[in-house]
Amino acid sequence: SAVISQKPSRDICQRGTSLTIQCQVDSQVTMMFWYRQQPGQSLTLIATANQGSEATYESGFVIDKFPISRPNLTFSTLTVSNMSPEDSSIYLCSVEGAGTEAFFGQGTRLTVV
Amino acid sequence: GQQLNQSPQSMFIQEGEDVSMNCTSSSIFNTWLWYKQDPGEGPVLLIALYKAGELTSNGRLTAQFGITRKDSFLNISASIPSDVGIYFCAGYSNSGYALNFGKGTSLLVTP
Predict the structure, then answer these.
(1) Residue A69 pairs with which residues in a beta bridge?
(2) B99 and A102: CB-CB below 8 Å?
(3) How far apart are CA A16 and CA B54, in angstroms?
């Protein structure tokens, strides 16, 4: 299984600011995924990040709000822009294993005040 | 994505009891995954299922891929306090690449 490291693990941010979350994987992977988990809820896919191309966003998520970078096969960033309290969530990075199972980082717990 | 119906929503049991939870979908899935999430952590994969009818164990955990390919269950035998957490089912349907998640089952175990 892949080892996935996310930074920061948690942050408290002022509304109107932006936060960039980093995800580092210990092996090269084709696709990396970003999820949001709102308080007490399940996981919702934000976007899929492929190296060398623009991220693919799911319905309800847009690039201006959640810009993603994927500079190489082991690293990705997700930025939460112009934050509001409604953006308070856990943001999770994920990669696929050999058998299509998904592995997750420990998550970034974001609180917007 | 596809809607997954996971039940029960929560369970409050005594240590030593067995637990069963299940997940159903409205469409055929080709992979079923079961995760556990502890507070402040990301989901950890417990069991992965790839074939209809497949029954797989991981210690005290057993999961099955339903024969109709529209459901899966997870059993935990002889529960212990460290089983406390939220359990999620997830899967890939034939029509998509995105992993679909159930709403989770919150498990509380009293000593």
Answers:
(1) A77
(2) yes
(3) 49
| Paired residues of B23 in beta bridges | B6, B72
Two tokens, residue B62? 């057993």
- Whether residue B81 has a cis bond before it, omega within 30° of 0: no
**Residue A37 above 80 pLDDT?**
yes
Nearest C-alpha neighbor of B102 from the set B27, B21, B2, B4: B4
CA distance B41 to chain A (A): 5
> What's the pLDDT tens digit per position in A47-84?
999 888 889 999 999 999 999 999 999 999 999 999 99
pLDDT value of position B94: 72
Question: Do you know the residue count of chain B?
Answer: 111
**CB-based contact B90 A102, cutoff 8 Å:** yes
Nearest in space to A45 (alpha carbons), one of B96, B24, B33, B32 = B96
Cross-chain residue pair A101–B102, CB shorter than 8 Å: no
Mean pLDDT of the A7-23 span: 97
